[in-house]
Amino acid sequence: MKKITIFLSLALLAACAKPQPQAFQVIPMPADVTVTDGAFCVKGVAVTVDPALDELSQKAVQRFVQALETATGVKTKSGEGGISFVLNASLAPEQYTINVKADGAVVEASALNGFVYACETLKQMLPAAIYGSVKAKADWVLPYCSIQDQPRFAYRGMHMDPCRHFWTIEETKRYLDVMTAYKLNRFHWHLTEDQGWRMEIKAYPKLTEVGAWRNGTVIKKDWGSNDGIRYGGFYTQEEMKEIVAYAAERGITVIPEVDLPGHMVAALAAYPQLGCTGGPYEVWTRWGVAKDILCAGNDEIFTFLEKVFDELMDIFPSEYIHIGGDECFNGDAEPDRPDPWDVCPKCAARMKALGIKKGPQAKHYLQNYVTDRVQNYLNAHGRKIIGWDEVLEGNLSEGATVMSWRGVEGGIKAAEKGFDAIMTPGGFCYFDYYQSQERDKEPFGIGGHLPLERVYNYEPFDGLKPGTEKHILGVQANLWTEYIATPEHLEYMLLPRMCALSEVQWCAASAKDYERFNASLDHTFQMLDAMGVNYSLDCRGLVGLDRQPARTPEEMEAYLAKKDWGW
Ligand code: ACM
Ligand code: ZN
Q1: Span 3-149: which CATH code?
Q2: What is the band of 58 on the pLDDT scale with cuts at 50, 70, 90?
Q3: 404 near 389, Cβ under 8 Å?
Q4: Angle at 528 between CA 199 and CA 316, to 5 degrees
């Protein structure tokens, strides 16, 4: 349970000439914090690093030292009595302790993640300028304190969609930097979609020659037309390895997603023989759910998928690989056209061979067959699958992890059936939804309404059958980018909601306190300013990218009554 005790002496308050520590506004709030009177100066401080630290932990400490030197404008030195980073093998890998007293600061952890999180907590206790890249005049002191910290959930994820709109390697690294600051540890990279295949696969070069490019992008919500401008991009294998390494240095595992058997139109455009009709197909220029998916009756799709996963596994060491599985049926683009699996002779032959009876569940069982074959292949290579909650329909095989997005029900059901689950319910974790209801002031978006406080108040165990909590590995938020085309907008949608998410992921339920969290955002906004990262100020009454004043409650009532939100 969180325990915070803050003793502020009148003497310190009166001694204005003394350097003042930054108010304790660390997000996510550490599990156990005691702040006492006094402050330890870190400008030009001695830094000692236990030689027993592994290479990545040493690198993490060096990044902290570098940031400190840049921001203070003074080099650190070696010697006793400064900040010591010490290996303590009795701590869990993500646990750390910090003790700051008059004679110095001692940081202890047992592994990379613990050291990364300790450094981030130290940085958040210092003036926000430590997140910048220039020297700043400030009170460079840490408060005397004793901190013992570890996360509630092992899986603390954030998703990125580079398919609907493409994000460069540098933009992706910035995203990872922000995740690091708030102690997230899983980056779900959604690399394939109807509107663009983003991952270089050497065995199938057309995936990126053809599949990475679309001939237009929908304008606002006019899904029937597009701007006619060729759009796309992809990551080379070297670039993806660079992201994996960059994330790994920050304690973040990259979980790649190949969404299958649906959301595959870009791949079908490149290799039309993989679809039920044989095409031709075009990389999709509209949003929504496509009818055309991989043909479950064609063995060539498994050769294709295995070769794709062979190359993917060489790039991504993650134990978990996301295989998608969402929205395979009832595509919304051609309502009168039957699902290809309902009319394809090859799919019909496969169903017959598998003994799948005709009926509403038939397609789900056929999807189970595809999921199973991919799962078996990945399991044989020592990997595990994650699937969106549709994979639970029919008969999901043991060992799969379910990502609950269509509400919380998928996760609850999965846990009851003995599957592990990751909670990412749309109503709490879809960061493409509007943050305020003032849509005329917000950048154009997909719809929905997900204010900061609602994210914060999400409790992942709500609705679970007692005893099944152990199956909830953690929580993730998703940021789909149909309507998000610039980094400025992407970051605006991400923040500060990801800060709220970080407390859902990290803090014990009893330690959460929206008022305390909201007050701590003052420091977070300074940090993000120093990093040059954009964010929403809706929680401070300023709406939209240009931060217009929010309506008064009376104006808001009148505005909502009109139901005219600009589109
Ligand atoms: C999803 O949002 N289609 C997983
Ligand atoms: Zn078929």
Answers
A1: 3.30.379.10
A2: very high
A3: yes
A4: 25
